[in-house]
Description:
The complex is a heterodimer. By secondary structure, chain A is an alpha+beta fold. Chain A folds into two domains: 3-329, Peroxisomal Thiolase, Chain A, domain 1 (3-Layer(aba) Sandwich); 346-468, no CATH class. Chain A is built from 13 helices and 22 strands. In chain A, the strands form five sheets. Chain A has a nine-stranded mixed sheet with strand order 5-4-6-7-1-8-13-12-11, sandwiched between helices. In chain A, β4 (63-70), α3 (80-87) and β5 (95-100) form a beta-alpha-beta unit. Chain B is α/β, with parallel strands linked by helices. Chain B folds into two domains: 9-117 and 207-223, 3-Layer(aba) Sandwich (Peroxisomal Thiolase, Chain A, domain 1); 137-203 and 230-382, Thiolase/Chalcone synthase (Peroxisomal Thiolase, Chain A, domain 1), CATH 3.40.47. Chain B is 35% helix and 18% strand. The interface between A and B is large, with 50 and 40 residues.
Amino acid sequence: MIGIKSIATYVPYFRLNRSELARAWKGGSIGGEKAVANFDEDSLTMAAEAGRYCVRDWGRDQIRGLFFASTTPPYGEKSSASILSAVLDLPKETFTMDLSDSLRSGTSAFLTALNGVQQGAMKEALILAADCRLGRAGSELEQLGGDASAAVLLSTSNLLATFEGAYTLSDPFIDFWRQGDEIFINSWEDRFIKLYGFTRVITEGIKGLLKKYELTLADFAKVIIPAPDARTLQEVTKQLGLKPNQVQDPLFANIGHAGAAQAFLMLAAALEEAKGGDRLLLANYGDGCDLLILRATEQAEQARGKTYLANFLSSKNALENYEKYLTFKGTVEKEPPRRPAPDTSLPVLWRDRKSVLALYGGKCQKCGTPHYPLQRVCFGCKAKDQFAEVRLADKKGEVYTFTKDNLYGVVDPPLVMTVVEIEGGYRIYCQMTDRDPEKVKVGMPVEMTFRKLHEARGLNNYFWKCRPVRSEGGGKNG
Amino acid sequence: MAESIKDKVAIIGMGCTKFGENWEWSVEDMVVDAVYEAYADAGVGPEAIEAAWVGTAYSGAGGSLLGDIIKLHDIPITRVENFCATGMEAFRNACYAVAAGVYDTVLAVGVEKLKDSGLQGLPDSMPRPVLGVGRTAPGSFALIASRYFAKYGIGKETLAKIAVKNHRHGALNPKAHFQREITIEQVLKAPIIAWPLGLFDCCPTTDGAAAAIITRQNLAPKVRPDYIPVKALALSVSSMWPQFRPGFDYLGFSANVTAAQSAYQQAGIKDPLKELDLAEVHDCFTITELIIYEDLGFCPRGEAKRFIDDGVFELSGELPVNTDGGLKSFGHPIGASGLRMIYEVYKQLQGKAGPRQVKNPKLGLAHNLGGTPQVCCITILGLP
């Protein structure tokens, strides 16, 4: 038996109400709000978030495969999966792979990983899918596109859902495209790419799958179709003759279409409600289609809430306006601060990797004094090189002290700079993100999150920040 | 403990430029003006200088920085740097060389030219690509203010009184960067730089230079009758990364406490509030001055507010602090500040401080702080 042991989602803190887009462009709104990555997030950092929550209850010991799927990886050349493997502190022998260029890359990763697990090459495999696609100002994609990520842990035991079959089609049909140096996605007339193109591919794929496995649509409790918009979903529903309660909600009202992550986000939502024995059809689209048959187990009912979807959806803050959205996306150029631009050094980042990527501190084995970053000599007893390395990424913390700095230039001032005390007495001096500056105070509970600090010499300088606790939902602190 | 520096060396001449946004003056201009004022003050010339120390954090490197400007060639010159305590470090090293008996007369110079960079605040000195990124000088000290506020329940009004005091003193000083008084209301309404610190809680970025000529104390009376002996020199260096240090409480700096203990011991001071007649302290931010009151034992822990409210540190108070306006009003050219503080104590002890003269001072302290913070340098001067 093989299948999904854990599935988790990540939805960024900010939402843009679509009426704000309608205001900016004096156009219509499809209603609702879309999830917007903070200025310090990209597909890699969002994937790290979903990945951490996905493995939180299970540990990372058995994972030997990490697959990163996104149409918006931060680098054209440089594997994100290898960085993510280090951030998630997976063993070095982990097989890492980046899948890109297609909205279908998430399910392609799933099928590739599935092979690896089936053949015993990896006991468990983690699939991370994330996207932050950009539509041009005033476009429908700008309204629909949302930023989010999802993670799926494949295993052979403790399964929420078992894998029962797959069917794949490749198709050269072009609907959305973007060349390497372009920021925005190009497309064609809706009627051609969606009503004709999407509908044709998905219905053809589903019919092929049903035939292959001798099933009918009535055998499925839920059909999950990451359609490009509501109208297209309706058209597919109609053509296939699906009942309304069989169609999984596309999350357009509160996230938007999250590209390569969309299929897993919808799957997570479906599994949150699935009963043991429910059969699910995941019909992912992009340059053809990947269709997966999954069957929920009794365990799915025990794991309610473990996708973190409800928590991250309820912990949110509205972007004040469209201008702020543009600055977050970096599509407008702001006057730089009159401060020295932060630089980087590859060798330093390399030497610091255990502290800055995997977030390890040390605990003195002679006197117990904790420290971060890793040191050679103990603060307490001056013992040399006698430390137990301790991963701090998933530990609880609180703000020991803070400032709201307007001098250091950031995209979203003020820069909330904090000293966080992590349980065990570790101190981390870091920036706070996903915060409401008015609510920051000494003693506030925080959790750590992996972010992009700054770009220098074309390199993304990633590091950890703290944020008011979001993973418990509700936006208690902001 | 080894012998104290007390009464071994003395200052026989000092110079200090006008501090400010000195657009018309280069590093060279300011060094020349400070050094030649010191020569004139001491009544000696360059031929008397056997060795020199020059302190600067950002405005040059190497001993030749000084030698080339004032054409002191073929003598030992050392460039000194220890964050914002750089100026006093130049002085301290010069004093020890004289005390060691290696030289009779030496020169210590501090200089900084910050306004040529076009940048606000100080350059970032964190050497790592991501660790500590986001730090600024006001941000570092704001961390202390936030914690102190949370612990002792004081607010920005108390800090504002420090800024108002130092501006009042600076208004009496023709060499100060800012020579105007400000009100509590102005301080509280000013834009926030790094919460809770507003514009008037922060010292400015400033250009300036200062210099001192030091000789063996037994030689000093032959140069001038009102030479000023050094009573104590102390330096304490703690972690540059207090933010990462487990257990650091943000309510005081251990470097201040240990340097003060050493300096008081050298000078034989038991009760600094009673025995010192004035103090120049490193008020880079208002919260820093407050913490220094407590670290240096001018008042008990957590009680700075009461002493501030009682006016203890005003020019007319029991222990006037920053009589020349301090960093807040006189300005803070990093490498020069430590020597500027000594300049004020020197002038006060000579009775030459003009409208801001403290009555009959006999013992004065200068305190220079560096780092984020954790480098503390203290000099105590007194009458012979």
